[in-house]
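job 3f2a | input accepted
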Amino acid sequence: MSVIEACPCGRTDTKGRAVPYAACCGRYLDGDLPVPDAEHLMRSRYTAFVRQRAGYLLATWHPAHRPAALDFEPGAKWLGLEVRGHRVTGADTAEVEFVARHRVGGRAVRLHERSRFVREPVDGVARWLYLDGDLLG
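job 3f2a | predicted structure (137 res):
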């Protein structure tokens, strides 16, 4: 019997069971399937941080704000993601409020952000991209 890996983003089904990685963020990180909305992009980007998938993170970052490179904190252990809200703000814009937690060198880190996303054509396909965000208390 094989063990099914739960998705790091923490998504659960209607019965409260963890959604498997392959049926959740794995569809986007390991394939070329565009995410359906900003919340799915937020969750898949969190999973990409957990798995240190810089290519996916850079590809889903809006070019106007994308860094040239991405470095991961050595020894970071991601502890969980809580999506607090997803709000459509226009035909091709949305916001997601989330809290992501991780530990680095024994120190707990809590990132609470309201992120902005935009849907734009990328290679002829409409794709959601991370634009920027505001840190919250």
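job 3f2a | DSSP finds three helices and four strands in the chain.
job 3f2a | closed
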